[in-house]
Write a structure and sequence with these properties.
The chain has one domain. By secondary structure, it is mainly alpha-helical.
Length: 204
Amino acid sequence: MIKEIIIVDLWAILLLLAYLTLPKYIHHFPKIRINPWIGIVGVSLVVRLVPNIILPMGASYDIESYQIVGNLVVRGEDVYSNPKAENRHPYLPAQMYWMALSNKIANYLNTPYVKIVRLAPIIADSCIAVMLYLILKNQISQRGAVLGALLYSINPLTVFVSAYHGQFDAIPTLLLPKICKSLIIVQNMYTPRHQSPCYKIARE
């Protein structure tokens, strides 16, 4: 266990050094022919999968809660009224199905549950990095957009929140821009343009 902790500590230090030095040296990197978002996804996944594979359970109460809820769903029991899940499911509405699927996959592969259930926020984090790149490339240079996405990808805080603690914050964060955009579209459909708060803000 001590060996694993030392390895991950070194990994965190390397990520921090990369995070601090990348803005200075990114302009010296040669242009790559592949689509930038492919590289962004690759970096984001690799830096998270390493601690996910090496490290044991991080936020033990949350991971235990995921497993309890997943077991109940697999057995077809009601999560909300079952005393085993009392104070154990303050999570996203459909998240219980990922908890249950993670349980089945872990049992099938004979793999620790925590290493499977943490894959959802890890993938969501990688999607956020791509989303940042797509947003930034329309506002700044492509190299600057890649830099912004990579800084999110290799930030030790975002890496270990999903890859060690297994927190699901990245999932609603990923959905938030789409939700806001949908609300604006709906608002504009039913509100005269000159009365829309978004229109007023833009005019000011």
